[in-house]
Amino acid sequence: MTTIDAGQVAQGGPPAEQPKPGTEAHPLHWKNRGHGHHWRTKDEQFDAEKLGMWLFLTTEVLLFAGIFCGYAVFRMLYPEAWAAGSHYLDWKIGMLNTVVLLISSWTVAMSVRNAQLNQQKWLQINLVITIVCAIAFLAIKFIFEYYPKLSEGKAPGTFFSYPYWKDPQEPLWWAIYYMGTGIHALHVVIGASLLGWVLYRSWKYKAYGSSEYTMVENSALYWHLVDLVWIFLFPLLYLIH
Amino acid sequence: MTTVDTTAGSLGQPQGGHYDEGSYLTPKGGTWATILQWATTVDHKKIGVMYLFAVLFMFFLGGAAALAVRMELLEPVRTITLADGSTQITGQLFGADPENMQAGNNVYNRLFTLHGAIMVFMFIVPSIPASLGNFFLPIMLGTKDVAFPRLNLFSWYIYVFGSIFGVISIVLGGVDTGWTFYTPYSTTTDADHWRVVYMILAAFILGFSSILTGMNFIVTVHKLRAPGMGWFDMPLLIWALYATSIIQVLATPVIGITLLLLIAERVLRIGIFDPGLGGDPVLYQHFFWFYSHPVVYVMILPAMGLISEMLSVHSRKKIFGYRAIAFSSLGIAAVSFLVWGHHMFTAMGELAAILFSALTFLVAIPTAVKVFNWIATLYKGSIVLNTPMLYTLGFLFLFSIGGLTGLPLGALATDLHLHDSYFVVAHFHYVMMGGTVIAFVGAIHHYWPKMFGRMYNEFWGQMGFWVVFVGFNVTFFTQFFLGTQGMPRRYATYVDEFQFLHVVSTIGSWLLLVGFLIHLFNFIHSLVLGPKAPPNPWGGLTLEWETESPPIEHNFHHEPVVRHGPYDFDTVVPPHCDAKDYPLPVPPQQAEDQARVIK
Predict the structure, then answer these.
(1) Of B224, B268, B287, the CB nearest to A38
(2) Which residues contact B400 (CB under 8 A, 6 or more apart)?
(3) Which residue of A49, A66, A171 is in closest CB contact with B277?
(4) Among B159, B47, B249, residue whose Cα is nearest residue A53
């Protein structure tokens, strides 16, 4: 049984001339990628990596479950605070961000398909659109939501200084709001970084193609999770009044 | 029965096999090169060995804190009035201040918190899966490595990173919140200091390490079993580790978000858990135990798997009820998620408490299935009373006591009397230490020849066992009495009539120290001077005994093919063993025929 270790190929004595990145001769080109030495076939490794990703996504869902559970408990305890809190949020901005994320979810799904069909140009275009959407999401979030709210004193915990509050438990609402959307925003950053890495390798090495797209697919799965969490956060935070 | 021929030269070298490799322990290059290789290795065996030494170090660190706790409890702390009318505080060993009783008590609080936090987060959760599990799971499955070797190395570094945060917190003065970080202790004590945050952060980071190990194991079990190995041909340790991994993956993220919220609560005072700000401290307890109760089974399930292995091998008998044991592991994992409420019976409504109590009793069913199956396995086995087997039998005794004393704690009426008393302390030490640690130490002996290629000294191994076994019971059985008489946990002081039992318990803790030191020196002696171990010293049938001791870099000379079950002692001569040492039993029909002929 011959196995090709990607690492070994990459390190294994280079010929007299280093092949240029992006050409078919380069070891990181998708046609030259093997599988780990402990796998029997490349397909098995692909299946395993996808299973691992799904398990990881399970942990992410459970991580956010803690936030949602806290949300449910305090909404039961303090319904007035929650109603008042939701009034401070502009559903139009939330809706805009939802649309932005849904578009990015579509483009990232397309990029996986492009990788499978070896459409290098479209793979990169779709990834660029996805990353632009991620940046747009964060920009909208920070410029139209976090910044004005924080400057009015609608902040969590000790920093709460909003003088016109209607319910004494409003700081708690802001705590859940900032923890939920903050951790989600962190996931947006991580997801966009992963996709940026995929884009870089695709652009520099043509690293992904019909037989090598695990990284594209798993990053896309992660991005869908980011999208999905927002799909739950949006109505629970913006649309409850 | 085919075995891997280790003297491969005589057979020639089949193409693609690993016949020219040395053991994984053979250093390549100079000292620094070797250290660098170990630090950057993706070999599951090296990572397992590094984990083993790290968790044992943490065990001794946490043990030192426990000894200090027991020392303090030798004498109750009390304020006495002298003849001249002045007062004096006696019985305080640590941080004693003749004027201020609280100063010494604070030191005591820090010591038991350190003991708990180190033992739970840095020792017992990663202990068996990350060390022995990492080493043996791929070998038992007949593969070269875990599914994601680099992720495995990453999880090791996360563990180191998290532990460093824990140690920083200790160096800065330690925390006194209790290992559970209950609010409002964890949100109010040492409010001007970051060390509580560091300790919480340590637990948060260590959680990631646990998740990654669990994911790795699940995928490895699903995708990397050797040819011929179906799900029910897997050794029971693998089933146990699989069930453990499911819990790790599903429960740990919840503690992640909980500790994150707790840090935000402490730093930003967001008020989720602080009743003064409208928060709910019981919500914290629900979140915490939703992780920490399942994690109790992360601690015990791998130990149960090890017991299944050792019991079968050292009594040379096919395990009784293989499927029942395998499924009971999964059953425990499933029920483990439904019982967290029994940590807070007094903080919930009656109906919820009754439901959680009933669910708690469900845990007893799969657990008892295991215990009865183990005992049935022993029946008519050829039991060899060596160190691993003594530890296995010790486990059966101690774990049964620990399990049965859980029942009065799960019952609402008795729990009202016993909760937060030394009865609880004794109960979970019987399960965690009498169960997990005893099985772990036994299994280290069992697998020592395979891991390091050296035999340990059997006499001192058995001596160590007896000292540990006696010391353990002296330390903790007394605490059942203390608890039923009303001694609450986590107090530095107590009424005078408890002193006798406390002194006995403290003497037991010294015996434990002596016992573990015997083992430590025995292991060091074995590494330096121990005789070379044969590939299969115990006559085991699982795949790890087919390869060499210690295993070669790629585990097997060529990919093993599974042709018999892991415990078929009645039909298979173990690999690398002489058939005359392991005669197969005569089938009943044949025996009858022979008897008739003789007649």
Answers:
(1) B224
(2) B371
(3) A171
(4) B249
CA distances from A172 to A84, A238, B240, B475 (A): 12, 16, 42, 46
CATH assignment of B26-590, among 1.20.210.10, 1.10.10.10, 3.30.420.40, 3.40.50.620: 1.20.210.10
CA A220 to chain B, closest CA, distance in angstroms equals 19
Residue among A63, A70, A159 minimizing CB distance to B256:
A63
**For tokens 């992660």, what's the residue?**
A222
- Kindly provide the ipTM of the predicted complex, given to two decimals: 0.90
Residue B384, burial from CB neighbour count under 10 angstroms (0-12, 13-18, 19+): middle
CB contact under 8 A, A62 and B280: no
DSSP letter at B88?
E
Contact B518, B440 (CB under 8 A): no
B70: tokens are 């027991």
Q: What is the per-residue pLDDT across B525-577, written as a single tens digit (0 to 9) for each? A: 999 999 999 999 999 999 999 999 899 999 998 889 998 999 999 889 899 98
**B47 contacts chain A (CB < 8 A):** no
Total-model pTM: 0.92
Identify whether the C-beta of residue A104 lies closer than 8 Å to the C-beta of residue A236: no
DSSP state of B340: G
Answer whether A56 sits within 8 Å of B218, measured CB to CB: no
Contacts of B269 by beta carbon, 8 Å cutoff, 6+ apart: A157, A158, B187, B277
| Residue-range domain boundaries for chain B | 26-590
In this structure, CATH architecture of domain A50-238: Up-down Bundle (1.20)
